[in-house]
Every structure is written in structure tokens, then in C-alpha cells.
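## retry 2 of 3
previous attempt timed out at serialization; input unchanged, resubmitting
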Amino acid sequence: MGRPSPNARPSSPTMMSDKTLFHFEDMQEIIKNFVVIHVDAPGMEEGAPAFPLGYQYPSLDQLADMIPCILQYVNFTSIIGIGVGAGAYVLARYSLSHPNTVEGLVLINIDPNAKGWMDWAAHKLTGLTSSISEMIMGHLFSTEELSKNTEMVQQQRDILSHATNLPNIQLYWSSYNSRRDLSLERGGDISFKCPVMLVVGDQAPHEDAVVECNSKLDPTQTSFLKMADSGGQPQLTQPGKLTEAFKYFVQGMGYMASSCMTRLSRSRTASLSSAASGDGNRSRSRTLSQSSEAGAPPPPAPTMEVSC
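## retry succeeded, writing output
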């Protein structure tokens, strides 16, 4: 693992949960400013051997409790966390218990709610008629993607069919479906203390859950990105647009201030200016643009939905 670049703040590396997005060409401009690490849940790394029969897999809360040890090992004092699905939940849970160590969160396809009785019953019924692979596919992709059997769907099916650690994946899947409610409440005691970007694909399996999560967060600290035509895995199908959004997100936190504004951030600033109904709002929109270019942290971004 390399040292932070001279232009980056060493105390703020980026912890991510999806390697593919960070292999995208346009993301290289961003990650050169940070130390990037990828954290796998136990037994989820490629080629991992199956756990012995009877192995008690950690709960998602227990996985979140492991993060401080990881940060201590790599000598990080704070992070910008990026998680997908179960990884997003784990990072969210960690952020709630260790708010002083998290500078920002990008949560893709997060479901902050525990399963209700109806969900639990439906899950059990599905388990009787579907294989673990089929259930995971329904979790990852939209109905339309599955019916069209897209190339990405075919690739994921092939990965699952040849996964030597499929028993481990089943244990992780069980832990995810047994998660506790995050109990987020707008204006309440349980809420994120850092900027948050929520991301979901339009018509994705997790769309309703992410929309509900957005309604529970502080609108002055939260950005909501709903991506059209991206299916259930926007970080894979729309990496360019998500990269633009992420760049704007870290610029809003005071990083990469010398970097040019992206197309998405210019569009967002223009939208704020055009939508403002009073001089105070128009002034705030101009300040948002000027502060990013001058290097000073801009004021908190308003909650908004951006369809890409």
C-alpha cells in the first residue's frame, strides 16, 4: 500500500467496497489524491476456501465492529467510505458508532431497514423454491435485466456457478437478511454526522429502500443520485456518471479543489441557480461554485435527486 500523494490529506484515505468502479479510467484522477483500500467480508475474497461446517458467520454489526482494527492496522485516522449493498450497511453502522473517524459516505443500494415479518416469510418461501444463486441474482439485478439476460447478468451467473466459496456467500447472505434496523431518524439522535451520497439505479430492487433512507437523513448533508438506465448495479453499468458525482462529492468536502468542475457538478450548480426563487438562494448557489474553485469547503449541498 502506497503513501498518500503529497496533495492529499494523509488522514483521509478512501475505503471502498467495489473494486470495479475504481478501475474505471476517469476515476484515476480522483484516486491519485487518496490511499485506496478494498475490504472483503470474511470468506468473500476470490478463491476463498469454504468455511467448515457449523461455522458461525459474523453478523453485519460484528463486521462493522471489525473496522477499527483494520484502520489501526493500516494507521488511518479517518476514511471516506464507499459501500455497495451489505457493504453499504456495514459502513453505515460503523459510521453511526464511530462518527469522528468518517469524513463522508457513499452508500450504493443501501437498505437500512430490518426485514419485517412479511419480508421474512417471503424470503423463507423463496428459499424453498429457489437456489441461493437465484436469490442473489434477484438481489443484485432488476427484473428487466434478468429477463433480458444481459451480458452482466450472464457473467454474474457464471461467477456464482463456479464460486468455490458459495457456502460462504450463503452465510453472508443469511447475515445480511438478519440485519438490524439502523433506526435512522431525520433530526433525531441516530443520524450520520458526515456528508452522505446515496446512489441507486432507477427500477433497481433497492430503489424504494434507498428513497426511504433519503427521507430519514439530514437534507443539508445528503445528496441523492438516482441513475436512469443503470439497473441494479449502477457502479458497473454507469461508472462514468457515478465517477462525476463522486468527484463533486469529494470536492464539496474540500478535496481536489484545484481540479476542474465536472459536467455533472456544473449542471448541478446551474440547476441550483435556475431553481432559486430568491436573492439569498441565488447567492448561495454562486458561493457553492466559487468556493469549490477557490479551495474553501463549500456550504452543505442540498438534498436533490439527479437522474443520469
